[in-house]
Each structure stands twice: as structure tokens, then as C-alpha cells.
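Pipeline run #58 for the internal structure catalog. This entry was flagged by the ingest filter as a single-chain record with no existing model, so it goes straight to prediction. Upstream metadata was stripped on purpose; only the residue string is passed forward. Reviewer on rotation: M.T. Logging verbosity set to normal.
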Amino acid sequence: MMPPRRTAPFNPRGFWHWRHAPVVVMLAAAVAATLPPYLIATWPAPLEAFWAWLNRGHGADGVTNGATLRNLGLILLGLIALPLLVWRSVTAHRQAHRQFRQLESGQRGNRYGRLQDAAGMLGADSRQERMAAMFVLDELRCEDPAAYHVPVMRLLTACFQDMRGPERPPKGEPSAGGAGSLYTADEKRLLFRTLGTRDDRMKRAERAAGYHPELRGARIPAPLACHFLDFSDFDFAKMDLSGIRFEGCDFSRAGLDRCGLRHCAFFRGAMKGVHMTGNAIDGATFHRVEGLSPRRLRHNAYDCEDGLPAAFIDATTGEEQPVDVTPAPETRPGTVGFFAGQSMGPLLYRRSATAGPR
């Protein structure tokens, strides 16, 4: 027995294309043969009547039907175009928002990759690679402070772990701070300036994360000049800043405890709410520093026997005032501080050169 014959399913498109094509052609030819003569014989009368109706006026002002029809058409076109315009605007806004999110996602991935690469380059043996990494990290936190400022600050402050020397060398011996350090003196100065370059967006990110930059025990090589940097809320405890010149820098609410400030120069900055005790301020200059007074310097000391006294110029009156400090404490084994008579090399800033106008 033979299997039943399978038939193809009915295809209306193929049926009309093949079976009824001659019929369609004949109907089209008949219409084309009869319609033009009919239109030629009858078109003048209807058109003339319509034209007369358009030119006919009505109302007291004699407005024609054509003008009324034109105004109605314009109103109808406006009603049709208004929804289309709103729909087009909404669609364009959605497309722009979608493209912006895609672009932002791509930039976020690119920044994260740059952050990883720069973090790896910070420990490179090449000086050029390390400095390039610092510039890349600084650029990242400027582009998106909310997401990258705190991570970048943590990376940069971690670099100062390599710059910390012993808490106190024996009396008469030079400090070993920075011995065997991976970073050169120029790189250390660049890192320090980069940390102080902050704006309001970056400080808001720090407050949101509860982060306070910490440089405890780090040693910054002099000479170094810092201009208009923001070190507010920094923790500089046990840090050696000797010989550095700060001009217009903000140290508000910073922690300056048991630091080396020998021959430092502070010009026209701010130290509102600064915690400043136990520092060695031999030969230091405080010239018109807002929020600072000789009374607040009373809990510091002169570390060297032959050191120059500190110079203080009042921010309001511009007059020089004496700085009376407590005596240097006795050196005890195991203590931490800068009052052990450390040798800090030649004096970089003399009082006569930094005291300013009297």
C-alpha cells in the first residue's frame, strides 16, 4: 500500500500570483480605459462649483470659506503635530539617557582599569612609571571624586609607609628616615603636593566615607615649597616637616602632634582648630597665620640647644610677638618625639629671611 500523498499547505500569496494574475491584469486594463474619458467629461463642473464655494464669503467681516478651511486645516495639523512632537522629545530623551548610561558604564570600566594599572605602577622600579602612576591617580580622582578620591588617597598615603624612619635615633646620630626608600626625593615632594591638592568635592567624599588622611611618621625631604594646598583634617603626628615652606596652606583641624617643624615657614595660611602640641619649632616662622596665637604654641619646645627661637607675626595687627614654650622634656629610652636633639642638617630657613615685615 502506497503512503498518502503529502500536499503543500495553501499559500494565498502564491494562489493569487499564479492563478488570478490574468484576471487582475484585465480588470486594471478596463479601469484604465474607461476612467480617463469619464474624468475628462465631468471634471470641470465639480471643480468650478468647489472653487465658487471657496471664494464665497460669509459673516459680517466677509471671511471666505477658503480662509476658514485653511484655518481649520492649520489647527488640525497643529493638533496632530503636537503629540508627535511630545513623543519625539520623550523618545530622544530616553535614547540620550540610554546612551549616557552606556557611556558612563564604559568610562567606569575604563577608570577602574586605569586605577588597577596605576596601582601596580606605583611599585615599579622605573622612576618614570611611578611618576606617571601618580599623575594618572590624580587625574582619576579629579574626574570622579565621589568614586575614586578616597581609594586614590589611600593608595598615595600608603606610599608614605616606605618613607618612615625610626621613631628616634640616638643622640648625635643622623636620622635614618627614608633610608632604602623606593621613592626619590622629587617623588616624595610630588606625592606630598598631590595629597594637599583637594577641592570641596573631594572633601565631601572624605566626609561621606568617614576618611581622614594619615601620614603618621612620614618624612618629607626639604627644601620644598607648598603654595595654597589644603591639609585640613590631616593627621601629621610624628611627621618630619622640617625646612618646608607653606604659603597660603590650610591646616584647619589638622593634627600636628610631636612633629619636626624646625625652620618651617608658615605664611598667611589657616590653622583654625589645629591640634598642635609637642612639636620642635626651632627657627620656625608663623607669619599672619589665621587661627594661631603664641598661646597655642606654648605647648611646643625648642629641641636644639643652639636653635633659633620661633618668630610669630600676628595675623590681625602684623606685629611680632614672643613665643614662650615649655622646656624640652628629658630624653627617655623608648619615647617618641622630636626632642632628642636630632641632627637635621643645615638650617634651610633662617628667621632673618622668613620673618617678613615687622
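catalog note: Residues 65-121 form the longest helix (57 residues).
catalog note: The two ends are 126 Å apart (CA to CA).
status: ready for reviewer M.T.
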